[in-house]
Design brief:
The chain is built from ten helices and two strands. 26% of the residues are buried. By secondary structure, the chain is mostly helical. The chain has a two-stranded antiparallel ribbon with strand order 1-2. It is 68% helix and 3% strand. It has one domain (2-248).
Length: 260
C-alpha cells in the first residue's frame, strides 16, 4: 500500500513536470510566431508598426551604424552559439533536454525584440522604384521569400525546429527517431532554403535605404557564416552522404556554393 502511494506521487509529479514543459513549449512557440510576423513587417517597412527598418530612434549615421551592427551581431551570435552541439551538451545539464530547442527559440525572440526596440534607421536611398510594375515585382519577391522560408520549415519537421515535438515526445515518454537525411522540394535546389527565403525577403524592396542596406548586408554575412558552422555539424551527423549532397547542390542560391 505504501509503495503504491509513493508510485502515484512520483508519477504525478513527473506528469506535472512534463505538462509544464509542454505548456512552456507552446507558449514559446506562439511568442516566436508573433515575433516572426513582426519581423516580416519590420523588414517590409510597414509603417503601422512602432518600429521598422526605416523607423526608429534617430541619431547620427555613424552612431546608428555602430548600434545596428551590434544588434545584428547579438542576433547572429545567439543564433549560432546556441545551435552548436557543444553548447547544447552543456546547456542541457542545466535545462531539461525537452526544453532546449524551445529556450533557443525564446532567446531568438529576445534577440529580435532587442533589435526591433533599438534599431536606428539611416536616411538616404540606394534605389527607389517609382513604377507600379517595378514595385509590384519587388513586393512579389518579398512575399515569395517569406513563403519559401515558411514552407521550408514544414518540409523537414516544423514542430521539431521550434521545439514542440521534443516537448510532446517528453510528455508521452517516447524517444526521438534517429535523424535521417532527406532533400524534399526546395532542398533539391539549395541546401538551405530557409536562408534562401531570408535572403530574398531582406533584399527585395522597392525602396532601399541606407539603413535597410545595412540590415540586409549584415544578415547576409550572418547567413554565410551560419551556413559554414551548420554544415560542420551536418557533416558530423550524416558524413559522406551530406558531403556528396553539398558537392552537387548550391548553398542558398541555386548552383552557387557547391563544395567538393
Amino acid at each position: 500500500m505504501v509503495n503504491s502511494s509513493i508510485t502515484r506521487v512520483v508519477f504525478g509529479e513527473a506528469l506535472i513536470g512534463r505538462l509544464l514543459i509542454m505548456t512552456l513549449a507552446i507558449a514559446i512557440y506562439l511568442a516566436f510566431f508573433a515575433t516572426f510576423l513582426y519581423l516580416v513587417g519590420f523588414v517590409g517597412g510597414f509603417d503601422f508598426l512602432p518600429t521598422n527598418v526605416d523607423k526608429g530612434i534617430a541619431v547620427a549615421p555613424a552612431v546608428a551604424t555602430l548600434v545596428d551592427l551590434a544588434l545584428i551581431a547579438i542576433f547572429g551570435l545567439q543564433h549560432s552559439i546556441m545551435a552548436r552541439p557543444g553548447f547544447k551538451a552543456g546547456w542541457t545539464r542545466i535545462v531539461p533536454p525537452a526544453l532546449e530547442r524551445s529556450i533557443y527559440c525564446l532567446a531568438t525572440v529576445a534577440a529580435l525584440a532587442l533589435l526591433f526596440a533599438f534599431w536606428h534607421p539611416i536616411e538616404g536611398r540606394i534605389w527607389s522604384i517609382g513604377s507600379e510594375m517595378g514595385q509590384a515585382i519587388m513586393w512579389g519577391l518579398f512575399g515569395l521569400g517569406w513563403t519559401i522560408l515558411f514552407v521550408s520549415t514544414w518540409l523537414l519537421n516544423h514542430f521539431e525546429l521550434f521545439g514542440l515535438q521534443q516537448a510532446w515526445q517528453n510528455l508521452r515518454g517516447t524517444e526521438a527517431a534517429a535523424p535521417r537525411m532527406r532533400t524534399p522540394l526546395f532542398y533539391k535546389l539549395v541546401r538551405h532554403p530557409i536562408y534562401t527565403g531570408f535572403f530574398i525577403a531582406f533584399w527585395a524592396t522597392p525602396e532601399m535605404t541606407y539603413g535597410h542596406l545595412l540590415f540586409a548586408t549584415g544578415m547576409t554575412i550572418y547567413i554565410i557564416t551560419g551556413i559554414a558552422h551548420e554544415e560542420r555539424d551536418l557533416l558530423d551527423i550524416f558524413g559522406s552522404e551530406y558531403a556528396s549532397y553539398r558537392s552537387s547542390v548550391g548553398a542558398f542560391i541555386p548552383g552557387l556554393g557547391k563544395k567538393a
